[in-house]
Structures are given as structure tokens and as C-alpha cells.
Write a structure and sequence with these properties.
Shape: globular
CATH superfamily: Rieske [2Fe-2S] iron-sulphur domain
Largest sheet: 6 strands, antiparallel
Order of helices and strands: EEEEEEEEEE
CATH topology: Rieske Iron-sulfur Protein
Strand content: 35-45%
CATH architecture: 3-layer Sandwich
Length: about 110
């Protein structure tokens, strides 16, 4: 059986220009990124230790954890350097009209 998801409106497309991130206060917390016009969504809590990743430095395709400086690829959730070794869960993103909608997977990834 596929994982349960719920659709969450992130924002209007003009509110997330390229090079920006938007935090969704969902459970689990999710961050949505615009990478050169392509949209990606990952869990917004570091897989190494509890830290809100969207508060870290977003540069191109990578996001740095503000707590221990691990970096993650926002396109696939993969860790790019220690201390994080576990990937982040990704979520499907769609554009409906001028709205960005994220299919947030619920439960323990």
C-alpha cells in the first residue's frame, strides 16, 4: 500500500522565486525549494540531530544544517557531508494554476 499523503498548499508561484525556500508548518515539517524554476520538497528536520533545516544556508541545490553544518541535496534529500548520514524524505510537488501544492507523506519515513 502506498504511503498516506495529504495535499498542502505551500504558496502562490510568485511567492517562491528561484533560489528561495518556504517552510511549511506541517507534521512532519516540510521545506519547499525553487531551484532554477524546478520545485522540490524535503523534510525540514535534519536527519542527524533535531534542527530546522530551512533556517540554514540554501545555496544552489544544497542546504546547510544550521546546527552541525551537514549539507543536503534538496533535489533528493541525500546528505552531502557528515555528520548526517541518513537521507531526508522527499515529497511530491505540483503546480495547480498559480498555486504550489505539496503531497506531504505522513508517518515515519
Amino acid at each position: 500500500m502506498p504511503p498516506a499523503t495529504h495535499r498542502v498548499r505551500a504558496c502562490a508561484t510568485h511567492e517562491l522565486p528561484p533560489g528561495t525556500v518556504r517552510r511549511l508548518r506541517t507534521m512532519p515539517p516540510v521545506a519547499v525549494f525553487n531551484v532554477a524554476g524546478r520545485l522540490y520538497a524535503i523534510d525540514d528536520v535534519c536527519s542527524h540531530a533535531y534542527a530546522i533545516l530551512s533556517e540554514g544556508h540554501f545555496d544552489g541545490t544544497s542546504l546547510e544544517c544550521p546546527m552541525h553544518m551537514s549539507r543536503f541535496d534538496v533535489r533528493n534529500g541525500e546528505p552531502l557531508c557528515p555528520p548526517a548520514t541518513e537521507p531526508l524524505r522527499t515529497h511530491q510537488v505540483e503546480v495547480t494554476g498559480n498555486e504550489i501544492v505539496v503531497h506531504v507523506e505522513v508517518g515515519n519515513g
